[in-house]
Amino acid sequence: MTSTPKKRVAVLISGGGTNLQSLIDATSAANFPAQICLVISNKADAYGLTRAQKAGIDTRTLPHKDYESRSAFDEALDKALKDANIELICLAGFMRLLTPVFIEKWTNKILNIHPSLLPSFPGLHVHQRAIDAGVRFSGCTVHIVREEMDVGPIIAQAVVPLAQDDTADTLAARILASEHEIYPKALEWIASGQAEIIGERVFLDQALSVPDSQYHPN
Ligand code: GRF
């Protein structure tokens, strides 16, 4: 019996890697349509590298300070990904902006997770900004990466209600738990072809149940 080969995924990190861990856990299932073949960090001390090594995944450190420009860094990154025959890239707390040239090379192949309901609150300090804005709901978004930061076709979102006494830390912790739910789902849908990117929208297979396609774990 022949089965569809799993998509070869690289995860790019800069830090603790709890989202990476959720992807490692999900992709370890025999029937998951993707496998993580490489984890790359721009920081040598990122704990996510240890998570990957514990799971037996190849790791690379590309310290951005070793490169004279963003494009030189992105060229090295591109080579490392090509050398490992990577097909999809997941950004998981990767704190580097990618150049338009790199993003163009990997059009519709780069996923990112962001801790707000995009297009609200792109950028940094999102939890405090959501609290300051007095919104009743925030959440997280997995999207396809475009040139502009935190912009691109939305694959999955989860809604997280705000509590009156939330601090940036308490809100971040609840949103992070939802991130761990939706990132593996989004990767599964893209890797399996159940999610199709058409222009700037992502269309989900009708066969996905409604709670799945409008993901709301809370
Ligand atoms: C997450 O909140 C993610 O949304 C943001 O950076 C954080 C990374 O956390 N882009 P971790 O390294 O996955 O724990």
Overview of the structural elements:
The protein has 218 residues and is α/β, with parallel strands linked by helices. 34% of the residues lie in helices and 24% in strands. It has seven helices and nine strands. The chain has helices spanning 18-27, 47-54, 70-83, 100-105, 126-133, 168-192, 210-213; strands spanning 7-13, 34-41, 58-61, 88-91, 110-114, 137-144, 154-161, 195-198, 201-204. Strands 3-2-1-4-5-6-7 form a seven-stranded mixed beta sheet, sandwiched between helices. Strands 8-9 form a two-stranded antiparallel ribbon. Helix 1 (18-27) runs parallel beside helix 6 (168-192) and helix 5 packs across helix 6. The longest helix is centred in the C-terminal third of the chain and has 25 residues, at 168-192. 5-O-phosphono-beta-D-ribofuranosylamine binds next to helix 1, strand 5 and helix 6.
Q: Tell me the Rg in angstroms.
A: 17 Å
Number of helices: 7
Q: Rough shape?
A: globular
Task: Report the biggest beta sheet as strand number plus sense, adding barrel if it closes.
Answer: 7 strands, mixed
**Strand and helix order:** EHEHEHEHEHEEHEEH
Q: Whole-number average pLDDT?
A: 95
Helical content stands at 25-40%
Task: Tell me the number of strands.
Answer: 9
How much β-strand is present in the residues?
15-25%
Report the uncertain regions: none
Tell me the distance between the termini.
Answer: 39 Å
Widest β-sheet, arrangement of strands: 3-2-1-4-5-6-7
The computed structural class is alpha/beta
Bound molecules: 5-O-phosphono-beta-D-ribofuranosylamine
